[in-house]
């Protein structure tokens, strides 16, 4: 077992028992589809699901229903595929759960990375679309925003769950009806959407692995205990305005008064140490940087483990050119693993971004042109399955293998 896998196993909660999965195996497209679509009640639905995934893998250019139908059957097929994606009754949740369990069996994950995805749109009618400012792009965009939960292994990452962020404007009666938004959906902030996307996947009893996510848009005080309750270790990027209590004996002059992270980091420059770690996203490259590690706790009752005392957390400042303030700040409950391992976890976000760009986008993860909530969810579910097939390198029929 690798050092990384060993560290992950040591970090697991003793109360979280992993389910049993099938032995690793290489399956063909039909065999994998039989696993994914076992929950679909009708054979024609299972056949259309396989045709759609085949189209996502083989069609050149935009993966529209029209282009997929042209590949697999023509105009009549276009109508039936449109119904299968937008108007049919099959549930995407069981398909995603089957995909997640398959991925775990053949490429055991080292972490679950929760990552937003922006989907630019020309019009305003696609479900969830808004015109808003996206800091990561530095501009206003007319776009949908979704959150993916990715299983990240040593050499690949695969999305296993998706959640579409919906603002309050989408719950006006006319917009909700036109987009077929279900009654149990509700408006969410990006942070709420990210947390719920992961909690949905965690309910499938997947292995306990660190959850890596940007939590600057979340209520960290409520996010941390909810992850701990699921038995999931965590590595959360936080905002430097977050208030925490210092518990580290190496940092003198601090009492239990909650203080902003920026103040804690400013007082901790003497604890800064050089760290070297492997960057899995670019092969055998090793990176180095200055990392500050300070023991902290969330203030108040939310910062306690089931009433037994403060939850021991580690605040990590990752160096920048400005030695007075770190470029990034992360919060984790993995207090006993080396900083190099924590930096490797941090780098898994880059792996997901690369696999999204060079893999998931090639199978059309952003290409759904319909307007309905259900259609969007079914499309990204099948695109995730197509990405998994390609990333796992099943090249028997020549349609897979772009992931190299």
Automatic annotation (TrEMBL):
InterPro entries: IS701-like, IS701-like_DDE_dom
Top-rank taxon: Bacteria
Domain Transposase IS701-like DDE: 36-251
PANTHER family: TRANSPOSASE
Official protein name in the record: Transposase
Organism the protein comes from: Streptomyces levis
């Amino acid at each position: 077992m690798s050092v990384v896998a060993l560290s992950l196993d040591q970090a697991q909660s003793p109360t979280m028992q992993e389910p049993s999965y099938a032995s690793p195996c290489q399956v063909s497209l039909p065999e994998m589809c039989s696993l994914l679509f076992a929950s679909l009640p009708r054979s024609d639905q299972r056949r259309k699901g396989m045709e759609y995934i085949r189209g996502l893998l083989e069609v050149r250019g935009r993966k529209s229903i029209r282009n997929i139908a042209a590949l697999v059957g023509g105009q009549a097929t276009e109508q039936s595929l449109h119904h299968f994606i937008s108007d049919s009754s099959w549930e995407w949740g069981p398909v995603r759960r089957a995909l997640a369990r398959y991925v775990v069996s053949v490429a055991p994950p080292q972490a679950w990375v929760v990552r937003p995805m922006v989907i630019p749109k020309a019009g305003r009618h696609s479900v969830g679309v808004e015109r808003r400012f996206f800091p990561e792009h530095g501009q206003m965009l007319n776009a949908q925003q979704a959150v993916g939960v990715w299983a990240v292994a040593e050499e690949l990452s695969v999305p296993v769950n998706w959640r579409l962020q919906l603002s309050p404007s989408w719950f006006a009666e006319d917009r909700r009806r036109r987009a077929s938004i279900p009654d149990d959906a509700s408006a969410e902030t990006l942070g709420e959407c990210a947390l719920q996307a992961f909690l949905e996947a965690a309910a499938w009893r997947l292995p306990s692995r660190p959850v890596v996510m940007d939590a600057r848009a979340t209520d960290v005080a409520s996010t941390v205990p909810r992850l701990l309750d699921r038995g999931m270790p965590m590595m959360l990027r936080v905002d430097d305005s977050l208030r925490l209590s210092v518990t580290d004996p190496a940092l003198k002059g601090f009492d239990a008064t909650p203080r902003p992270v920026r103040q804690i980091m400013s007082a901790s420059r003497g604890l800064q140490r050089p760290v070297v770690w492997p960057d899995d996203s670019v092969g055998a490259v090793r990176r180095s940087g200055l990392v500050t590690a300070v023991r902290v706790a969330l203030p108040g009752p939310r910062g306690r483990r089931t009433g037994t005392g403060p939850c021991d957390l580690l605040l990590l400042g990752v160096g920048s050119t400005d030695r007075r303030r770190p470029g990034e700040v992360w919060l984790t409950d993995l207090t006993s693993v080396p900083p190099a391992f924590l930096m490797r976890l941090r780098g898994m976000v880059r792996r997901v971004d690369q696999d999204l760009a060079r893999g998931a986008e090639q199978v059309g993860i952003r290409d759904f042109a319909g307007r309905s909530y259900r259609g969007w969810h079914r499309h990204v579910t099948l695109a995730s399955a197509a990405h998994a097939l390609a990333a796992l390198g099943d090249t028997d029929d020549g349609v897979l293998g772009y992931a190299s």
